[in-house]
Design goal:
mainly beta, single chain, 5 strands
Length: about 60
């Protein structure tokens, strides 16, 4: 459960960026990704999402 930008669309991704204190909503457009905005997702705030991750679970995005 959470809340996000009114511009959110069904295929958008909720991403956690190291050093950022809130999840971000990212949209894929052609060969790059666009930052749609911040969001609140229960259970992903305050670093909870990063606690169980390993280095091989990260993905690199090209933002525009």
């Amino acid at each position: 459960m959470g809340i996000g930008p009114i511009a959110a669309e069904e295929e958008d991704m909720i991403c956690i960026f190291p050093g950022c204190n809130v999840p971000l909503l990212i949209r894929k457009e052609n060969d790059y990704h666009v930052l749609v905005g911040e969001c609140f997702v229960w259970g992903l705030m305050d670093g909870e999402a990063m606690e169980a991750r390993t280095d091989d679970e990260y993905e690199v995005f090209r933002l525009r």
